Amino acid sequence: CSPQVIRPEPCGVCGSRIRFGKTAIKCCQCQLLLHTKCREQCPAPCVPRPRHHSWPREGVLADFAPSTPPLVPALVVQCVTEVETRGLTETGLYRVPGAEQLVREWKRRLLRAGGALPSLSSVTDVHVVCGGGVWPQEGAASALTLISGAATDVLDDAACDTALRHLVSKLPPANRDTLAFLMMHLLRVSCSPECKMDVLNLSRVFGPTLVGHSSANPTPLAIMEDTPRQCKVVARLLSLPHDFWKGFVGTEQENLVPV
After folding, report:
1. Do you know which InterPro entries this protein is assigned to (predicted)?
2. Is residue 247 within a helix (H) or strand (E), and if so which, with residue range?
3. 113 — alpha (psi -120 to 50), left (phi > 0) or beta?
4. Would you list the domain boundaries of the chain?
5. What's the rounded Cα separation, in Å, for the pair 193 and 92?
6. Please, are residues 195 and 93 in contact by the beta-carbon 8 Å criterion?
7. Could you give the CA distance from residue 165 to residue 167 in angstroms, rounded to a whole number?
């Protein structure tokens, strides 16, 4: 299979490091990991090892993240990589919906895949990749309710930014790293003239997904009242500089796609 490396690991053939976000080759039987260029030198025969178990159906974001930093789930890395590879010239990225039936089908495939993620390159419409919100509400979303007050109640911009930086740094590590990874991705989307998705547009799309509501079962009135707050929180997060977010995921993240 061809996984994407979440933490730097040595190649089983040449011994040099495979960097974060790079595509590698992994034997489905013995789990040997190597550079794609080292495939011809792969030793044989191999000793089969037990297959990965599938992901849990419920849990917090940390249950899906790797054991070493940056703590960004493999599926998030794979989806972002695919979107940035062929989606940054698509008008209305994240606003234009993919076919609902295809989105549901790929959700099922990805959840069943466990450690060996199927390639998303076979998904013809990149909007389908953008439409798969498969992570639990308990994950990155609910953690962001901690910073809502800073984004909506502090009037001074400088004080608001300081409060946001402090609160983001106090998030659980997996939530913080994944949030940083997503914010850097959305900043790249906002800078694409072809996408026509500025910070305000992205905030409207991602507000409900990332921030969520103050209760598990909000009333229609609560949903209506929460919407402006959700948008403002994401807009404030996207106003923080690229280098702030980069500090959480490290320079290796830059290897995902050309900036």
Report:
1. C1-like_sf, PKC_DAG/PE, Rho_GTPase_activation_prot, RhoGAP_dom
2. helix 242-249
3. alpha
4. 4-41, 61-249
5. 11
6. yes
7. 6
Distance CA 95, CA 78 (A): 20
Instruction: Give me the CATH topology for the region 4-41.
Output: Wheat Germ Agglutinin (Isolectin 2); domain 1 (3.30.60)
Taking the C-alpha atoms of residue 36 and residue 24, their distance in angstroms, rounded to an integer, is 5
Residue 70, preceding bond cis, omega within 30 degrees?
A: yes
* Homologous superfamily, domain 61-249: Rho GTPase activation protein (1.10.555.10)
Q: What is this structure's pTM?
A: 0.72
The token pair at 20 is 């974060």
- The separation between CA 172 and the C-alpha centre of its own chain, rounded to angstroms, equals 15
Q: Rounded to an integer, what distance in angstroms lies between the CA atom of residue 254 and that of residue 156?
A: 32
Using alpha carbons, select from 73, 187, 83 the residue that is nearest to residue 128: 83
The Cα–Cα gap between 93 and 79 comes to 13
Phi, psi angle pair for 197, to nearest 5° = -125, 90
